[in-house]
Structures are given as structure tokens and as C-alpha cells.
Amino acid sequence: MARNQASGEFDNMLRRLWHQRQAVFGLVMLLVLLSIAYHIEGPHQKYVRYMEKKTLWCAYWVGLGILSSVGLGTGLHTFLLYLGPHIAS
Fold first, then answer.
1. How many angstroms separate the CA atoms of 58 and 56, rounded?
2. Cα separation of 86 and 78, whole Å?
3. What is the crossing angle of helices 21-39 and 45-70, to 10°?
4. pLDDT tens per residue, range 30-65
């Protein structure tokens, strides 16, 4: 029963993706173009590295927010995750 239900949910997901195929195609093309720009040498690399650095910085803070919302048990994690690195930099 559970396997049949999972199969039905997967089919439903594929149908929804098929209805959004233009958005999926656009996203795939964007990822391909970004990958090409990342791997080809040229004068644009300084902008690529800048965006990479900013993206990683944002992902770091989002990750810290998720870890903080999980609740690690004490208030110490707030200092260790947020204030400590901020003060150290």
C-alpha cells in the first residue's frame, strides 16, 4: 500500500514538473551557463569569485540561522555561532 502511494506521489510530482517545463528548462539553462562561466578563464573571473564569496557568505548565515532555530540546548551557541565569529573578524 505504501509503495503504491509513494509511486502515485512521484507521478503527481512529475506531472507538476511537466506543467512547469519552461521554468525547469530555464533553471537548467541558467545553471549550465553559470557552470560554464565558472570554469572558463577570462576577465569575468573576478566577478565570478566575488559572487562566489558573497553566495557562500549568505549560505553561511542562513545555515547558522537554521542551526540556531534548531536549538542546541544553551544560550552559548548564540555567541559561538553569531557573535564570536563576527567579533573575531
1. 5
2. 11
3. 120
4. 999 999 999 999 999 999 999 999 999 999 888 877
Same domain as 85, residue 48: yes
62 versus 19: which is more confidently predicted?
19
Q: Count the neighbouring beta carbons within 10 Å of the beta carbon of residue 88.
A: 6
Structural domain boundaries enclosing 29:
1-40
pLDDT for 75? 61
How many structural domains are present in the chain?
Answer: 2
Residues 15 and 36 in one domain: yes
Mean pLDDT for the chain overall: 83
C-alpha cell at 36: 560554464
Confidence band for 69, pLDDT divided at 50, 70 and 90 = confident
User: Are residue 24 and residue 52 in the same domain, yes or no?
Assistant: no
Residues 59 and 75 in one domain: yes
